[in-house]
TrEMBL record:
Family per record: Belongs to the peptidase M32 family.
Taxonomy, superkingdom: Bacteria
Entry annotated with the keyword Protease: yes
Cofactor(s) named in the record: Zn(2+)
Function of the protein: Broad specificity carboxypetidase that releases amino acids sequentially from the C-terminus, including neutral, aromatic, polar and basic residues.
EC number: 3.4.17.19
One Pfam entry name: Peptidase_M32
Keyword terms: Carboxypeptidase, Hydrolase, Metal-binding, Metalloprotease, Protease, Zinc
GO molecular function: metal ion binding; metallocarboxypeptidase activity
Enzyme class per UniProt: hydrolase
Protein name: Metal-dependent carboxypeptidase
Catalytic activity: Release of a C-terminal amino acid with broad specificity, except for -Pro
Length: 489
């Protein structure tokens, strides 16, 4: 784990403060460490020991710390050993270089700069998927998906997405022609970056992020990474003319950070102290960003301080106008700034395109036009540039193919978990209005964070909420909040 987190630290530095010219050597550093970690994790002697332990713990409670540790480590070993070390090193080298090239291409608004890097990453991930899928009935893409959401399938995701798409399209149509519309221009005024930076630290601390065990920095694409049991790094970005970017980017990444800080430190690096899936991870980030951060109750507590921080920009904006503005529903180009109703349409587009790239039915050269066409057909808007289109997300450059669907799974779980917490804790809105967020955080720690990988993601949802994961809670939450705001019933 020490070698792995050392590589993670180098990658964090690469995306925050590393000189541009150091990129090539940094890729060599990280790929060397990743290769060393892979060799240790796939050693035959290690696998033999795990096989014996699996047999020894076969009669134990499968959700106990010891049994889960043995089971999940054996699962990881069985999967990792299918990849030769050279492939791991080459993939690490390609993704570090790919992220650097993506960042430069996005700033230059030039997809051609990124084309070859992306092609290399996709080829490598396709090979990895093929190796993982060998001797199974899963496709290479499903094998890649399994890295982020164990046991998920394309068919189950499509069924889930279809059950969500219809009510979302209906809700968006009702809102589009609603009698009331927000004035989101109040969020497009000149908001000093220094003030945003201080405010972001304030709200991250308010919801429970422990700055004695973590820190907040800035980068081109927000993320969260864990460098040690008490070293959680969250990163956001700020735009002087769009206030929500910093606020909700910070709350989103703080949600990830709270999950990491809520795990049991004594099990750090082992399954009981590791997140169960990225869908569950995203449920935590989206819950704090949306169910909490976009609630009227949150701003009842924070809006006076918000106006003071951003004065005179918000002096003439009431709390109701501000709350309506941060809940604006309108098709937009950028996923990380998309509203709650249209957000999942962004995910569905990426899910389809990345699957086609791995399958080979979509070439890298055709990707920009495929992206633009899908945005035009699905959201009614066509990206005017690559920077606001195919180059907006870091994921593919980093080799995170199969990651995108977990955002929607996280949205579904966030609504379901929030409803369950409210049913047990009482009126959360009143607690938020008083600035009390600890009860919700404590509930999440007990029902999600502290279990690590002792339960699967679906088991955690079922255990915490009493129901299987479905679209019902999310659709109900969006309808209850948005239709009254827009003057619809």
């Amino acid at each position: 784990m020490v070698l792995q987190t050392t590589a993670d630290t180098l990658e964090w530095d690469e995306r925050t403060g590393m000189p541009v010219g150091a990129g090539s050597y940094r890729a060599t550093q990280v790929s060397t460490l990743r290769g060393m970690v892979h060799e240790l994790r796939t050693a035959e002697s290690y696998g033999d020991d795990l096989c014996q332990l699996v047999e020894a713990f076969s009669d134990d409670d499968p959700h106990s710390d010891s049994a889960a540790t043995v089971r999940e480590l054996h699962r990881d070993w069985s999967r990792d050993r299918k990849l030769p070390t050279d492939l791991v090193r080459r993939t690490s080298q390609a993704t570090i270089g790919g992220q650097q090239m993506w960042d430069a291409a996005r700033k230059a608004d030039d997809f051609s700069m990124f084309r070859d890097s992306l092609s290399e990453v996709v080829d490598l991930k396709r090979e990895i998927g093929q190796r993982w899928a060998a001797d199974s009935d899963r496709s290479p893409y499903e094998a890649l998906l399994d890295e982020y959401e164990p046991n998920a399938s394309v068919a189950s995701l499509q069924t889930m997405f279809d059950s969500l798409r219809v009510p979302l399209v209906d809700l968006i149509a009702k809102i589009k022609d609603a009698p009331r519309q927000p004035d989101y221009s109040v969020l497009q005024r000149d908001f000093p970056i220094d003030a945003q930076r201080k405010f972001s630290h304030r709200i991250a601390s308010l919801v429970g992020f422990d700055f004695d065990r973590g820190r907040l920095d800035e980068t081109s694409h927000p993320f969260c990474t864990t460098l040690g049991p008490s070293d959680i790094r969250i990163l956001t970005r700020f735009e002087s003319d769009w206030l929500p970017s910093g606020i909700f980017g910070t709350l989103h990444e703080a949600g990830h950070g709270l999950y990491e800080q809520g795990m049991r430190e004594e099990w750090f690096g082992l399954p009981p102290g590791s997140y169960v899936s990225l869908g569950m991870h995203e449920s935590q980030s989206r819950l704090w960003e949306n169910q909490v951060g976009r609630s009227h109750a949150f701003w009842r507590h924070m809006y006076g301080e918000t106006q003071t921080t951003f004065s005179p920009q918000l002096d003439d904006v009431s709390i109701d106008e501000f709350h309506f503005a941060v809940n604006t529903i309108r098709p937009s180009l950028i996923r990380v700034e998309a509203d709650e109703a249209t957000y999942n349409l962004h995910i569905i587009i990426r899910f389809d395109l990345e699957r086609q790239m791995i399958e080979g039915s979509l070439s890298i050269d055709d990707l920009p036009e495929a992206w633009n066409s899908r945005y035009e057909s699905d959201l009614g808007i066509r990206p005017p540039s690559a920077a606001d289109g195919v180059l907006q997300d870091v994921h593919w450059s980093a080799g995170l193919i199969g990651y995108f669907p977990t955002y929607t799974l996280g949205n579904l779980a966030s609504a379901q978990l929030f409803d369950a917490a409210a049913a047990e804790l009482g009126d959360l809105d009143e607690a938020f209005a008083r600035g009390e967020f600890a009860p919700l955080l404590d509930w999440l720690v007990q029902n999600v964070h502290r279990h690590g990988r002792c339960f699967s993601g679906s088991e955690l949802v079922r255990q915490a909420t009493g129901s299987e994961l479905s679209a019902d809670a999310l659709v109900g939450y969006l309808q209850r909040k948005l239709l009254p705001l827009y003057g619809r019933q």
